[in-house]
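dumping this here so i dont lose it again. seq + smiles for zinc ion
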Amino acid sequence: MAKQETRRKQEEGAAGLRPDYFRGLNYLINEQPDKAIEVFVRMLEVDSDTVETHLALGSLFRRRGEVDRAIRIHQNLIARPTLSLDQRNQALLELGQDYMRAGLLDRAESLFLELIEVNGQATPALRLLCDIYQQEKEWDKAIDMARKLEGATGKKLNSLIAQYYCEIADQARVQKDNVRAAQMIKRALSADSGCVRATIMQGDMERGGGDCKAALQTYQRVEAQDPEYLSEVIPPMLGCYHALENPTEMMDYLKKLVQKYPRIVPISALVEFLRNQYGEHDAMVFVTDHLQKQPTLTGLVSMIDLQLAGSDGNAQSSLLMIKEGIEKLLKENPLYRCNHCGFSGKSIHWQCPGCKTWGSVKPIQMQALPCMQSKNTQRV
Ligand SMILES: [Zn+2]
């Protein structure tokens, strides 16, 4: 026995690791992961000190997209009777993530619920359950988990919870259940009074119900919440002012906005308004003055537009060409961009399709001429 013990120690080498371990690593390096798993799993039967290695290996396989292998490793781990309770919970959490990756959301869900029940790895389990319920659009359950997560971490998740309420409101509006929609919007705003999405929805509903005065007041709140979203509310606000036949107030509001936010939507709205209300001359005076103070592509297009009306022949076709060129430039730019991952697109997403962050996709603010700055898009 003494002889055997000496030999075993020699075999273990300087790092105290078994030759099996190196054989397993060798298989991995030679990209024979199945053989490597076999060796590692055999080792585990002898020795459960290597649990950490197995967990690391399993999550490595999952991240590489080899979910079947990850599942095999984690299932093998869980089957070991020698695991400590903590190690078992850790392996269960990993296995749940494997299932999520494989699209087996029901299985993942029941594993995570089990972990919360026994209060092992509860915080990451709650976080992953939020992800699952988001994917399944089960917003009530997502809210429940987010509230529990708040309790577990002590960190407020108000803006996330407000987005979940907005999702329920959206569903209710699709089902034409306006009472429930209004209720959910109210809850969203009481969770997060700065929720732009809920405010826009509230304004849209008031406008849809014919109460333009209330809608205007609601839309106006967006400026204080986040002026980056102004471009979303200016068009419906114009509709409200129009319905209320209140051009003076509308002009004052637009002028105030243009001064504070010299951007594409307020400028074109004001030019359009001046043109319709007071004619080409007034619109031209505004555009010339604006271009002198702050050269913008939108201002330029508006000016060309106004000049076009009074021109003919060669001048007119040249102006038309310039206008079309600039408009093409403006159109080629995406309208919305995620300030978290850079995803860009032509329509607004309240949850980024790229990185799944909520409220990170915002309208891009066109401000200055490309020739005057290195970028033709700029956020304020
Ligand atoms: Zn993103």
